[in-house]
Amino acid sequence: MKLQSFEEYPFVTGGVCAAQGFRASGVCCGLKHQALSCVTEQAAEANLPEDDAPKKNDLAMIVSDFECSAAAVYTQNKVKGAPILVTKEHLKNGRAAAVIVNSVNANTCNADGVEKANKMCELAAEALDLQPDDVVVASTGVIGQVLPIEPIEAAIPALTKALSYHGNTEAMHAIMTTDTREKELAVRFQIGKKTCTLGGMLKGSGMIHPNMATTLTFLTTDCAISPAMLQQALSDVVRVTLNRVSVDGDQSTNDMVCIMANGMAENKEITDENADYAAFRGALYAVMLNLARLCAADGEGATKLIECVVTEAASEQVAETIAKSVIESSLFKAAMFGADANWGRIACAMGYSDCEYDVNKVSVDLASSKGRITVAKNGCGVPFSEDDAKTILLEDEVQVLISLDSGDASAIAWGCDLTYDYVQINGDYRS
Amino acid sequence: MKLQSFEEYPFVTGGVCAAQGFRASGVCCGLKHQALSCVTEQAAEANLPEDDAPKKNDLAMIVSDFECSAAAVYTQNKVKGAPILVTKEHLKNGRAAAVIVNSVNANTCNADGVEKANKMCELAAEALDLQPDDVVVASTGVIGQVLPIEPIEAAIPALTKALSYHGNTEAMHAIMTTDTREKELAVRFQIGKKTCTLGGMLKGSGMIHPNMATTLTFLTTDCAISPAMLQQALSDVVRVTLNRVSVDGDQSTNDMVCIMANGMAENKEITDENADYAAFRGALYAVMLNLARLCAADGEGATKLIECVVTEAASEQVAETIAKSVIESSLFKAAMFGADANWGRIACAMGYSDCEYDVNKVSVDLASSKGRITVAKNGCGVPFSEDDAKTILLEDEVQVLISLDSGDASAIAWGCDLTYDYVQINGDYRS
Lengths: 431, 431
Prior knowledge:
homodimer; alpha+beta; L-amino peptidase D-ALA esterase/amidase; Ubiquitin-like (UB roll); 2 domains; nine-stranded mixed sheet; six-stranded mixed sheet; 30% helix
């Protein structure tokens, strides 16, 4: 997948460590070996990982050299992971200095979930000489299995020791679950005469759906910005990026997007909606747009990224509702896997979306780097070459371009195709 | 799949021909060979099927010996097939005498759709010596391709000639698309001293979702009942049967459930909500409940029927919303395919359903003919045997039993697992 670039925001390497003053680390503490036994009779027993096990990282830390403004957006699922509850509490003051996050186990639907999430914050705080409420905690993985705290506790010294200004990739590996691609990036930008950097990493492949934060995403920046403006920018950008990604329509219980800003770029702190804020928001958009696209392209089992662009809508709400409905349709997604220009499924998915539009004014084009064809006009099919359509749809980035001919609002949503591999991955996720 | 039986409503054979005075027929008119060429340059040319083609029926007729009370429930998709618009018009007077229906092509999103649907009614009426508005018309198949009327017109004499009091199965075969199982049944019941019969056939495997009529279903009865009461019974029973089935979350553009009652059982006509009405509604429920279960069990690619039963809810609305959310979750459906007791996905799907309930009072059991186990209580996981869970989930009928401990309302929804075959079937549906 090609990143979408913006002239004022050149890409730089380093992910969550790209901005000044952020260290990160990732280790394998061995949670994978605990996963299934936790709901059996051996739930209480904590076994260390066996020596011959693959050492995929499962525990990560991100630490700022200075305390940060911090903001977050959370899942809207009523069933919330315990780490969400604890982090919400810790971010009430808009300040944070570190993140601790594990994969494999979501620490959700467990009677001792909050206790364990608090313990993770205490362990991190103690090792980093911080207060527990300076720590953001997150977990991702299987829901409803007791989180064994012992492997995490045992790994804290190694995790702390591994902290590095180049530890971004090790940290990113630790939050990956069924992800097949690395998802981190950063951009550089100017605030006045100061050069700032904003970077992030994202985990997310399945159980991904709009109307929520979607996935675990951690962002860091050295820009100076108040907690209130940071929250405003984050909420605003999430709305048009991660909230418009759907892989499978399932909203996770543990989603969180968290951003920390430590001010080390020494720009004048952004405290209201001025030009500096616009520049900062642009950087956040450049990073999150591409993380969202990477997330959709790496949807579980996906072979292609699908971008649905709805234009000439009466309102952004209508455009967004229709774009999301199309990328969420299982039938449409399966057709995209088969590179089958079955556009009737697009019309169908538009028709059951919860908004008003004139079905007789709809036109639909399909496009990719191989070309663009019109498949419907005025709500009806038009003749097109099946061969051309196949050529276009065989690409790994496909666009569905819908015009409603009813106004000038627009919206984009991102999804992926539905494949055998999605079923395979999710048929036995826990083992 | 075992049919669910009710003592007062014994099953009888005959499907839509089980009731007195209904004949049916089905033929292959050759629409399959037209499907793909319709959007190409050859759209206008009507080719007859080749001799070596498989002769799956694609055109059916159902005719009553006497004019009937008639009622229908339609898709709620804003994009409606042309036959839906025409049938709605014809049923305004609550009367009908015949049905003509084709598969392969949905006659939807076509500029000449209404014209073609009207033509189908005219052809049937002429052959049967009826008025066009006595005829119900329906189409199912690919959306957005011009319906070639010539093969239908050419087949009318054969279709009419084949009409028989035992033609139910031929007719049923004609409405099947990706269906792999025959779906027809009938029950006998008493209204006063008169014996009545009610039977039906259903087509539907993919693009199946609640909040609408779902699928094509045709029902016939010799019971005497007014159009108004017939409509009331149908709408009421659809709500708790077909509207609680989901295969893939996609609401079709062409769904219709239609019932015709010709009064030949000579019972006193049912004109209000009396005991006779209750008996009739019971028969309709017995038939439609089982058609709904057959529909879910035959979901595209499905290997098992999943029944989600929500009890002790504060309201039926809450119970229904949660039951539907669970059976619609792609992640849960994939786990069921893998016979993986990943109940966290059930909790997750409940949590993002659009209703209020106490997440800390939820208990979840999994059951089948092989036993029943509790996997969660008070919103948290409880230890269970993975082996027992696997044994239960490997059956072809699985129940998810959810208690909300908040009232005495309940609801059931039906779905199926998500499999490789769903993807395969829908990756290239049109060819």
